[in-house]
User: What shape does this take?
Amino acid sequence: MSSSLTRILGTAITASVLAATPLTMAYAQDNQDEARLRKIEAEIRALQRTVFPGGDSKYFEPEIRPGIQVNNTNAPSTTAVTDILVRLDAIEGQLQRLTAKAEENGNTIAYLQARVAALEPQPEPQPEPLPQPAELPAATTSAPARPAVQPASTPTPTSAAVSGPSAARLAAVQEITKPQTDDPGDDEYSYGFRLWNAGFYPEARQQLSLYLEQYSSHGMTSYGRNLLGRAYLDDGQPEEAARWFLRNYQTDKDGRRAGDSLLFLAEAMIAMKDTDRACIALAEFSETYPALAAGRLLDQYEASRQKVRCN
Assistant: This one.
């Protein structure tokens, strides 16, 4: 009888231990999940303080709110799973706000960097020295060779140049918008064209130089070099203009503005009172680009010919 009772008691104890084991394991697992969740919440709060300094109540809910009883014995009890789900929802909401704020800050910084880069002065690439008349494209002429053009003396900077552009000029330049298309190279050239067309020649030269430096193989480079020469010529600097016109013509004689540059080279020589070189450029233009001389550039060609007397 005692042995039977012993077996019965042993069986009951074993069943009790086995029944309690899942509860113990579940309790340990809950403790691990709770610790991991508290760690995530601490990291989220630290990240919030970095992105939103100052502890704005918009993003940090206070521990105790006015008018709210902390220990409400009548509040309905919640299970551990419900509490975890509520806290996970709160974490997801915080992450969404942080992500939106980070994207907004990134867009703002990118916009400010683009504006600063557009306003900062950029070094202009130096063209090759202007060659002797003998180095110009061959043309039928009996004009004697003349010495190379000496670089003009550097003018003394005026007080306006030292102090920089005025606030009114900066405001006027900022009103000229830069295109935003799927072709960034064309956007850079078009922005330079808009500056030149508005009469802001130094700013146009800076922008066009930046375009030629960053997009040297772009389809509008022939336009860019020609327009850079015009930005010098229209600003009363024919010698620098002549260098860019000659460079554009010699770089690619089949370029879309190579013929224009050769004709503008003649105009730059006329402005410098260098009749010999002007006549060489005009003769080469009529021989190399007869369609332009009789078509789109006819009026400009005839006007240039009337300014000089060539043999």
In short: Confidence is low (pLDDT under 50) at residues 137-161. The chain is about 65% helix and 0% strand. Residues 178-311 form a domain with the Serine Threonine Protein Phosphatase 5, Tetratricopeptide repeat fold (CATH 1.25.40.10). The two ends are 144 Å apart (CA to CA).
